[in-house]
């Protein structure tokens, strides 16, 4: 045995050295990884905390039991506002002029609709009120413009140039954009929020304008004189719009599902 060891001592030492070096290397690597993890742990913990708070806030925003998300966007208010303001542009009077006072309080800006489909958002300065009727008559200039537009409407030619935006709509959109642009928001959810904003934009710029234009054409053919006060209910326009518009249910449910997966809400803990 001693003879065998003496004859083979060299390669036995080499084997032990290789094994020792390998073990030392593995231990060093694991120690480095653990040390790196320990150093980054506070940062990781802070990111997770901020993401959790952000996602909980977004989840609460989407699951608000007091308001269905479709109504939170204020589509009904947008339809009302734009129907009445478009009627005014075509020279029509309303039985109740107080409606324009309410519109003044709620409108914060408008979207300019371009032929090529692009959009410009314009904020309405507080110092500039929407022009409205003080008595029962429009001023002469406005009346003349309304007459010209009315003649075109009776020929089936109505071109909506802008859509006015309500304060409620603006608050909801700003909130969604804040969530989307937050640096702690996971990219997958940012993508879904972008999809939601595109759906809302599609409803306002593709679905709503034709409904208002059709309403004005129909009104111009049934109402003999624009100077005679009229009483209209935009609910019909809203109903047509609602049937054709995207209701966002699938997108909202998908966002909620992703958030619950991130937060591991439904995970069964052992």
Describe this structure in words.
The protein has 270 residues and is mainly alpha-helical. It contains nine helices and three strands. A hairpin with a 5-residue loop joins β1 and β2. The protein is rod-shaped and about 115 Å long. It starts with a helix and ends in a 7-residue tail after the last helix.
Strand content: 5-15%
Q: Quick check: average pLDDT?
A: 76
The secondary-structure element order is HHHHEEHEHHHH
What is the end-to-end distance?
A: 56 Å
Strand-pairing-aware structural class:
mainly alpha
Helix content: 55-70%
Number of alpha- plus pi-helical segments: 9
Rounded to the nearest angstrom, the radius of gyration is 33 Å
- Taking strands numbered 1, 2, ... along the chain, how are they ordered across the largest sheet? 2-1-3
Mass-distribution shape:
rod-shaped
Give the uncertain stretches in residue-range form: 122-138
Number of strands: 3
Largest sheet: 3 strands, antiparallel
């Amino acid at each position: 045995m001693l003879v065998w060891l003496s004859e083979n001592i060299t390669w036995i030492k080499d084997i032990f050295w290789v094994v020792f070096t390998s073990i030392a290397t593995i231990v060093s690597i694991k120690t480095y990884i653990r040390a790196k993890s320990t150093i980054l742990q506070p940062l990781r913990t802070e990111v997770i905390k901020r993401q959790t708070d952000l996602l909980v806030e977004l989840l609460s925003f989407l699951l608000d039991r007091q308001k269905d998300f479709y109504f939170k966007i204020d589509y009904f208010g947008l339809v009302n506002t734009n129907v009445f303001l478009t009627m005014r542009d075509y020279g029509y009077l309303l039985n109740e002029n107080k409606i324009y006072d309410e519109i003044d309080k709620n409108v914060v800006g408008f979207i300019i609709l371009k032929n090529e489909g692009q959009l410009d958002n314009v904020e309405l300065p507080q110092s500039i009120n929407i022009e409205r009727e003080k008595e029962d008559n429009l001023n002469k200039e406005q009346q003349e413009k309304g007459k010209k537009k009315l003649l075109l409407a009776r020929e089936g030619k109505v071109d909506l140039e802008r859509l006015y935006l309500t304060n409620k709509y603006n608050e909801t959109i700003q909130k969604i954009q804040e969530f989307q642009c937050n640096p702690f928001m996971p990219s997958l959810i940012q993508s879904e929020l972008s999809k939601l904003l595109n759906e809302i934009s599609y409803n306002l710029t593709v679905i709503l304008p034709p409904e208002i234009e059709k309403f004005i054409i129909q009104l111009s053919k049934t109402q003999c004189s624009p100077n005679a006060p009229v009483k209209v209910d935009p609910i019909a326009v809203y109903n047509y719009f609602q049937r054709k518009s995207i209701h966002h249910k699938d997108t909202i449910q998908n966002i909620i599902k992703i958030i619950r997966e991130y937060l591991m809400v439904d995970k069964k803990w052992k």
